[in-house]
Design goal:
Elements: E1 5-9, H1 16-28, E2 32-37, E3 43-45, E4 51-53, E5 56-57, E6 68-71, H2 76-80, H3 84-95, E7 99-103, H4 107-110, E8 120-121, H5 128-133, E9 137-138, E10 143-146, E11 149-152, H6 158-168
Parallel strand pairs: 1-2, 1-6, 2-5, 6-7, 7-11, 8-9
Antiparallel strand pairs: 3-4, 10-11
Length: about 170
């Protein structure tokens, strides 16, 4: 799997486990992992204040360079969807048919794309109406895989979520 490259999206108020658990799990699996955000080389903070530094600006990221985009939750997706570069990168990843994975509130970013059209998906229950309005059939399950779309509800679902992503990248 050494040739696979994953973009984990970050912004202020990210859910710490939903960024760092996949990050280290994918690094251990020999994937190349980049933290992608509205701005490059900027420090973003989790809801608890834990910092991370973005490696690349979404406006400069190219979908052709990545195999997968992971969107963690927390309040970060609400900030992500305010940035035109982030929206463009997300739309480009969806249009290119890449593996698209969102957990918890991460689905908010995908509502600004066509990722949910005609797909089954899950999310944190508070945004289930948002993903349904974006075209998904909501399913309450720890991990839902529908083609290249992988979704989960909450941090407790991270083992199943990451396993599904790794399987999709084989």
């Amino acid at each position: 799997m050494a040739a696979k490259k994953v973009a984990i999206m970050v912004d202020e108020m990210y859910q710490v486990l939903e960024v760092w658990y996949p990050y280290y799990r994918f690094v251990e699996a020999a994937l190349e992992v980049n933290l992608v955000a509205a701005e490059a080389k900027k420090q973003y903070h989790s809801k608890e204040g834990y910092p991370c530094v973005s490696g690349i600006a979404a406006g400069l990221a190219r979908a052709g360079d990545y195999d997968c985009m992971v969107v963690p939750g927390g309040f970060a997706p609400d900030f992500m969807r305010r940035d035109a570069g982030v929206i463009k990168f997300a739309n480009d990843m969806v249009s290119a048919g890449k593996v698209i994975a969102a957990i918890c509130h991460g689905g908010w970013l995908l509502c600004s794309t066509e990722a949910y059209r005609g797909k089954k998906a899950t999310c944190f229950m508070a945004i289930k109406d948002d993903i349904k309005n974006a075209g998904a059939k909501y399913v309450d399950a720890e991990c839902v895989v529908d083609g290249n779309l992988i979704t989960s509800r909450k941090p407790d679902d991270l083992p199943a979520f990451c396993t599904a992503i790794l399987e999709a990248l084989k």
